[in-house]
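Re: the pair you flagged

First of the two:
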Amino acid sequence: MGHWTVNQAGKSIVLIGMMGAGKSSVGRCLQRRTQFALLDTDEIVASKFGLSIPEIFSKYGEQVFREAETEALREMGPDKQTIVVTGGGIVLCEDNLDFLKRLGVVVWLDGKEETLFERAARSGNRPLLKRGYSREAFTRILRLAANRRMQPNFASGCAKARMAKCIICNAAKRNVAIRRRFCPVRGRS
């Protein structure tokens, strides 16, 4: 597993990446370490519809889900320090990239294609995989998403807990609000 970080506009740490990359797990780890609120775009959308993500896809289709996902991003403000966990397809909409950048430090969690596919398929609740998408389709989605990762500026691979620490340290280097909280100046109280 690896990650790349881009941007530093807002105060949040935003996790993006393909399904199966570990965004939810790393997000929970970051939340425990930072005590920031944890916002998950999939959970926000599911709550608005009162349905699971697979049920939303089945009943309303992917386009309605993607529109609700974009709306959830628009409702998030860049002034509050949060951990934002996104769905794997959020980068497929170019407008979302601007919203993500405004929220704060954007981190792309990555992994080997085989590992990502196996994790995503194993979970059994991925609408795109349930609808009969093949490994080839997964690869196409991965490549499209990778082309939209917003020009990452560093990479590192490590386990989840260590990755959370790496993300916090690197986010602090790029974001004054995070640096003030997690890297206080020595000699000051």
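Second of the two:
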Amino acid sequence: MAWPDWEVGDLLTADEMNDRQEISVYKTALETRTSTTTLANDSELSVAVRAGFIYLIRSVVNYSAAADGIDLRYGWSVPTGSSIWWSNAGLDVGVTVQSGSFNTHFNTTAAPANRQVGAVDEGPTAVTFNGVLTPAIDGDLTFMWAQGTSSASALNVRETSFIALKPIRKF
């Protein structure tokens, strides 16, 4: 059922208000991957979503590499049959400094195999995401990641990364 149009004097229920609350998850611990280019779910960056809603996605993923050239490969896991539109902004693949060139992608699929942003050994870097998710069934929106180029050197997704979802429509 869609959200009602309230008028002066209408009684608001807790469910009606809770349905409009932003849902967020915040990464509390560093997570490291080595020697893999296969996307896998992040251990903390996962948010429960419900069918019957459209969500606005905002996310910042902070990451670092132990060496230049490893890069961050990424995607999203969504409930089966869901629709997701998302874009990102991050460093160009293969960069060796934290400033200068950056790239953007626009995607209409959940987990593209070849989406990457650059990672450098200078310290933390971030990639930002914005999008819209319409879950077909209840489930989870989960950030997936791996190394862009397999290396024994560590690639880390860092604490302070987050996903925030805002319900923008109920149907």
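The longest helix spans residues 14-18.

-B.
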